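Project standup — Tuesday

K.O.: blocked on the structure for the chain from last sprint. Re-posting the sequence here as requested.
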Amino acid sequence: MKITIIGGSKGTGAQLASLAHAADFDVTALSRSGTAPDGVRAIAGDATNPAVVADAVSGADAVVVTVGGTKGAAQPRTAITESVIAAMQETGVRRLVIQSSLGAGESITQLPALMRPIIKLLLGKALADHTEQEAVVRASGLDWTIVRPTSLNDKQPTGSWTALRVGEEGKISGSISRGDLAACILESVTDHSTIGGALGVSG
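H.V.: unblocked you, prediction finished:
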């Protein structure tokens, strides 16, 4: 299976690239730096440029967007996701998974009530970007899945996590390691039951 990761040079994206390569995926990573884990095809470029993204996603079976904020940009995640969607529509790639954040959109209800105003205060701009990013994804007509992690840490992966849609019984709290989040995203890529769903994820 061929997978393209937008933002695969560090953090969750790099861990995802490593996991996918170890699982015998054919992996391409697009980032500004053009760096990627061993065995991964690395492309340097601006992910807000659909022509650059089209080169990276052409022939892929799935695309994953896992990008953070960009200094000086108002809604960088949304801009990149719009570019990715345009490139996927142009090249005929349908499977899209994006990393958003718990608290975006209706997922604010998955947070403990006392935490909601604090999260909005501390992460308001980022969550607004993620909420708009999710809206763009939902309107794309692609086979999409949204993954919304709680706060991230760099602890050793445990190999387990909780993934719940809004309204499902269970608890989303605490944090999740980047390694476990990467494994959850990789599992979601091939799990077609997640298509059209947004998953709140915690460790």
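K.O.: great, moving the ticket to review. The domain at 2-202 is CATH 3.40.50.720 (Rossmann fold). The chain has a mean pLDDT of 91.
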